[in-house]
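step 4 of 6: structure.
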Amino acid sequence: MRFADEFRDPEKARTLIAEIERLVVPLSAARGRPLQIMEVCGGHTHTIFRYGLKTMLPEKTLEFVHGPGCPVCVLPMGRVDDCVALAQIPNVIFTTFGDAMRVPGSKGSLLQAKAGGADVRMVYSPLDALELARKNPQREVIFFALGFETTMPSTALTVLQAKREGIRNFSLFCNHITIIPTIKAILDSPELTLDGFLGPGHVSMVIGNRPYDFIAKRYGKPIVIAGFEPLDVLQSLWMVLKQLSEGRCEVENQYQRVVAEGGNAQALAAVGEVFELREFFEWRGLGSIDHSGVRLRAAFAEYDAERKFIVPNLKIADPKSCQCGEVLKGVIKPNQCKVFGTACTPEKPLGSLMVSSEGACAAYYQYGRIEMKPRGETEKVTP
Amino acid sequence: MCLGIPGRIVAIAHAEHKLAMVDVCGVQRQINIACIVNDEHPVQSCVGDWVLVHVGFAMSRINEEEARLTLELLTELGEAQAEIEAMRESQPV
Ligand code: SF4
């Protein structure tokens, strides 16, 4: 096996791969197609590519579908344009995580806005944005709040801290999104033939496993919350397949060393105090999904950039040649997109799946050469 | 942003605001520990804890072995260095 030596426990990896192969053959035969397992989280996508898991597993009978769990990847162009517009307001310091700097909007990225003179600053933490506000009382500091439930508590706690200290020149441009309605939207999508899920590890660290119950109960699909080690991913995959072959569908937790059943109570309390669900939120490639985003509650209106400033809030359609939506839903593979590797590359991304290392297209591009090695090389893959 | 990075809490910086100093591979910075503090595990008892740090917040307590393995993984994924750099550069002074 080509990569097994890179595993912490190569013997265990071999055993798991053999077990996965044994389970997947009859399951796929019964369906007359390859089994489709979605890894919801971009972190898993990264692990799968980095360790070449795809090529170690029986490709004809098992497919990974790379889900929407990379917050940078699902950011619609219109929201990026809004960021640029906010950054261009005189006296504003616009702060963002580095990942979001290069996401293309219809009028360029935040990086380009910065080059054009806007005061855009990369921060590691919302706490650093708050510190900028403390140090620059005469300026307005806006933090571009982004991410799923993993980062939601951090911005909620930062807003609570700002309020406690009475800092008035700090606000959030809130683009937090929530995973559950999104998984539901994917399950309701008619083009889809998913058989099971690998659940996001760090979102679950915050929300726990109970919110996923509907996937098993209502949609009859197994889901296993997975860690990010290659062995974690293999073991979780094996757990999903085991459920399928035993005719069970349950929520199981492979990542118990970090994810508690009830999630993180303190984090959930902060999120609940500061945020409320939006009626709907727009996703790149997936369109509008009901209740899939949050905004600040009225009690925190003074920290809400959307209330404090005028945000253009334009809806910009994704470029025509861009097929991010189909990739996100697993309808096509990244390299089947018409502009993959030509008009769309990590250096000059057209779609956002090409921007972040957790995006499916960037992963395909980066590790594509390994994946597409000549036959002689890939033969070593099977144990 | 989503994967986080393991670090060890070395001191309490501001108990009331639940701020602590964390050491991540030799880089120290202030983080918020509100999410790992509760009645059974008050602020002062956090010193020495290994935690998973996401964007400046300790989100989960982990054991030392888990911390070591996660760091190895992040290094291999090419994520650790970028995260540590971002941490170093953004140090609020
Ligand atoms: S190649 Fe580019 S445009 Fe096509 S799906 Fe991927 S990110 Fe979107």
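step 5 of 6: annotate
 - Residues A 322-324, 327, 334, 337, 339-340, 344, 350-351, 353-354, 361 surround iron/sulfur cluster (CB under 6 Å).
 - The longest strand of chain A covers residues 62-69.
step 6 of 6: archive
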